[in-house]
Structures are given as structure tokens and as C-alpha cells.
Amino acid sequence: MSQETKQFSKQFIRRLKIILICLLILAVLGIGMRLIQYWRLRYNTEQAAVLSVATVLAAKSAAFVEIILPGNVQAWHESTIYARTNGYVLKWLVDIGAYVKTGDLLAQIATPEVNAQLRQAEADLKTAEANNNLAQTTAKRWIILWKTDSVSKQETDEKISDAKAKAAIEVATRANRDRLKDLVSFERVVAPFDGVITSRLTDIGRLINAGSGTVPLFRMAQTNPLRVYVRVPEYYSSNVKPGITTVLQFPQHPGKSYPAVLLDTAKAIDVVTRTLLVQFQVANPNNDLFAGSYTEVHLKLPAQNSVLLPVNTLIFRAEGMQVATIDGDHQVVIKSIMIGRDYGDVVEVVNGVKPNEAVILNPPDSLLNGQEVRIISTKPMSKEEIKKA
């Protein structure tokens, strides 16, 4: 083989090696690109399978919470005044809205029959006194005569027994006279306490009978101070203690507030309404407030160790109310919670969540405990949301 042929063969082999190397490089690059695309597709698929969530940080509730409850205003004392004797109304001296003092004359009742009975009772009493005096004197004389054997023991005992009977008759007659005197004194209908006349149900000439089963004469109420009754939900009952104060607001007095102090509680929960009946006292020196009014009771009570969350964090399931939190490994932790107060867009959570704990917003129904998620945003609750509570 000539020298030229050998030289050509070497060059051909060298070029063939270069071509093979290039083909190998191209094959490696192709396979590498495919592998990169495969792993990229796999990563994107895995990332797409991970749920993306937004979270909110649970806000700690305020140290005190103000609750507004409906209250019922009642008079300190309220009384329906009936006639205590039979007769007819001679005159009345007060009408509705009149302020009276204890003992003030409200009405005068004419009782001619009772007056006649009183005069008869006084005459009967005089007769009984005379008969009793004679019987007592006779008994004493017969005792002296019996000691001298001038009369028998039997006759003496009869005189003594008659004296005792006459004494009892005098006592009974005097009691009847006193009863009729009391009935006559009831001709004057007087105020039992300081207050205002809220109703007059009688008029001059009306025939009346004694007793509570008849039509009353007046109704009156003591309006300074006033009692305010309010039913506090069972959840807050442990924080209602003697000495706490509250503020009352009335729709007929816009812009005004009236302080009230707690008197006492019923110390028992109503099993029907699950509330605690509470009694407050409010001063009413100018008689601005009326008994029977409706009022809003603004109670500021110590808050429970609770947090605030938006309502779109809640999960409603058969297990009860729940929320979904996220642990350090970005895995879902579903927790059962207890709701305190519902403020509309915000709820109070008294158990199950800690302050500044991340809670998932708008959790899907398919969310599972331990599921991995990707956090796209974390934000604290806004001031507007916290103010609503």
C-alpha cells in the first residue's frame, strides 16, 4: 500500500472518530435535555399537586370585651292600691303623673254603714263594760260572803264564772270596736311610699268594696332609683360579680348614658334561655327615666383567653367547628375549636388556637390533616376586622 493510501486512511479514521465523538456528544446532549425536561415536568407536576393557600395570623382579643344586651327597667317599688273598706269614693286628690310622699292623702272614701256599725260597737262596748264591772263587784262580794258561810260554794262559783264571762265579752266587744275604727281610718287612702301615680282607676261616687279582688283605686311606682333586669349569656356569667358597673342607653334619650351598678344576680342559670338574670340599680333623681322602659345595657367584662379569626377560616364538619393551621413542615393541622362571640365577619375563638398562629383562609372541603401545602401569603388581621370585635 502506497504512502498516499496510508495517509488517506489515517485521515479518514481520524475524521470518523471526530464524527462519532460528535454523534456521541449530540446523543448525550439529547438524552440530557430529555432528562432535564422530564425532571422539570415532574417537579412542576408535583408542585401543581401541592395546594397553595393563604393564611392569616390569629389576633389576640382585647383585655376587656363589651357586650350590649337588652334590659328591662322596673320601678324600685311598685304597688296597686285597693280600698280597705266598703263605701263610695267621696273625692280623689291626685291623678296620673303626680309625685307624692309617704302618707300623702290620695282619696277619701265615704263609709256610712261602717260609721253606723262603729257607733253601735261603741254602745255595745259601754254595755259590756258596765256588765263586766257589775259582775266583778258581785263576784268579790260573794267570795266574802262564802268565807263567812253566808252563801254556798256553788252559788259563789257561779258568780265567779259569770264575772269571767262578762270580762271576756268586754274584750271581744272592744276588739270589734277597734276593728271598726280601723275600717273607718281606711276612709283615708294614703301613699305607702314616695313615688309617682301611674294610673287612676276610680272616680267620685264609684261604689267600692274592700279587697284585692275588686277594681283598684290607684297604681303607683317609686322611680328613684330604678331596677334594671338583664339576662347575661351563660358564657359570661362567671365574670358578672358584685360591684361591676355598666352604662345604660335609651332610644328616647339619644346621646346620653346613665351609669348603673350591679346589685345582685339570680345565682342560677335559666335552663330554657341559658342565661343569668342580673339586677342593676340606676339613679333617677330628675325622673328622666320611666319604669317599664327598654334599655341597652353596655357591659364591659374581662375577656377570656381568646383569639379573633375571620369567619372564612372556619370549617364546618361532623366533628364540629374546626380550623386548619400549618406546622413547621408546611403540613396541615386541623384543630377543633370553641366559638365564643360571633361579630359577623369575625368570631371569637376561646379554645383551640393560639395568638399569632397561622390559619388557612378559605380552606377547601377536601383538606386533610397532614396534607402538605404551599403558603403563598401570610397576613395579620386588619385593624378594621379587630375593631368589629
Mind explaining what this structure looks like?
This protein is an alpha+beta fold and 389 residues long. It folds into four domains: 3-49; 52-61 and 305-388, conserved putative lor/sdh protein from methanococcus maripaludis s2 fold (Beta Barrel), CATH 2.40.420.20; 69-74 and 221-302, Elongation Factor Tu (Ef-tu), domain 3 (Beta Barrel), CATH 2.40.30; 83-190, Helix hairpin bin (Helix Hairpins), CATH 1.10.287.470. The protein contains four helices and 22 strands. It has helices at 3-49, 112-147, 153-185, 383-388, and strands at 51-57, 59-60, 64-81, 87-92, 99-100, 105-110, 188-190, 195-200, 207-208, 218-233, 245-249, 258-269, 275-282, 294-302, 307-310, 315-317, 320-326, 332-336, 338-342, 346-351, 358-360, 373-380. It has a six-stranded antiparallel barrel with strand order 3-10-13-12-11-14. A hairpin with a 2-residue loop joins β16 and β17. The longest helix is centred in the N-terminal third of the chain and has 47 residues, at 3-49. The radius of gyration is 49 Å and the shape is rod-shaped. The model has no long low-confidence stretch (mean pLDDT 83).
